Amino acid sequence: MLSKKTVLITGGTGSFGKKFIETILHRYPDVKKIIVFSRDELKQSELRMSYPPQQFPQLRFFIGDVRDKERVKQACEGVDVIIHAAAMKQVDTAEYNPTECIRTNVDGAENVIHAALECGVKDVVALSTDKACAPINLYGATKLASDKLFAAANNIKGSKDIKFSVVRYGNVMGSRGSVIPFFLSKREEGTLPITHEEMTRFNISLQDGVDLVMFAIENHLGGEIFIPKIPSYKILDVAKAVGPECKTTVVGIRPGEKLHEEMLTETDSINTIDLGDKYAILPSVSYMYTEEQFMKHHNAQKVPFGFKYNSGTNTEWETVESLRVLVKEHVDPTFEV
């Protein structure tokens, strides 16, 4: 799929980008080029030290911001596949700095789309978030707008051989700023702050997130929002798994935060198909394919009318024991209760 191809990943120095690079190099040692596009020179320098040029000549490090259309276009020259992972994603930061969030998440998405159209790119997959489903904070709203831009980009491609799609998933286990590393850092204090005792979240590993993107690259027709079927966890179970000896204190739900995360609403179900181990929300407006063609291509069926998918009503759950196994496997290999 990526053999002898040139791949650009925006936000390439983040948690996802690092795992994506590792996966490509392992599965496609003959990849032509991997361009890491991001605006943080220190993170690029640190990542470059992990991949010495003598051993990994296929890696390129490109300083730039997705807000800068011309710079994005320069980075896209000769590129076959784009993975758009760059985003401003801290909920509270976005609430306080709304215009900055819009410029990165919405204007940046538009810049990537137009650069891809102008440079002959073949496949574009953008990363979304469960917060884009029925958003209640600005971050989620900007990512929903971004999702709509990428889905609609398929309608303006004309005769160009290019496909745009999106992948959406929940909290990534062990990613920067997520709850498990936070709880691990708080264990020694003896108290773990809980936002709400009933709170639940979806859970996915970095590798599973990368594999979903790989699936999208290989299988998309264009316009789909792919959503994996993944387990949920209760925030109290995470606390018990990480620090069973610790006390918990309820600090309250933060501004812009949901009690249960959603990835599909009842209204989304009208345009949603079931692929077996994942769902796909089809574009509300598509001039390329009919719903029947999407279903045949993906060997899928329609979800029931009124179906919804959220972390509180999920049928698959992590337990305290399974969470401990996952923490050791994906977050901290030295973890012990």
Notes on the protein architecture:
With 337 residues, this protein is α/β, with parallel strands linked by helices. The chain has one domain (6-170, 205-229, 262-310): Rossmann fold (3-Layer(aba) Sandwich), CATH 3.40.50.720. Helices cover 36% and strands 20% of the residues. It is built from 11 helices and 17 strands. The strands form 4 sheets. The chain has a 10-stranded mixed β-sheet with strand order 3-2-1-4-5-6-10-15-14-16, with helices on both faces. The chain has a 3-stranded mixed β-sheet with strand order 7-9-11. It has a two-stranded parallel ribbon with strand order 8-12. Helix 6 (138-152) links the parallel strand 5 and strand 6 (163-167). The chain is globular, with a radius of gyration of 20 Å. The N and C termini lie far apart (42 Å). The model has no long low-confidence stretch (mean pLDDT 95).
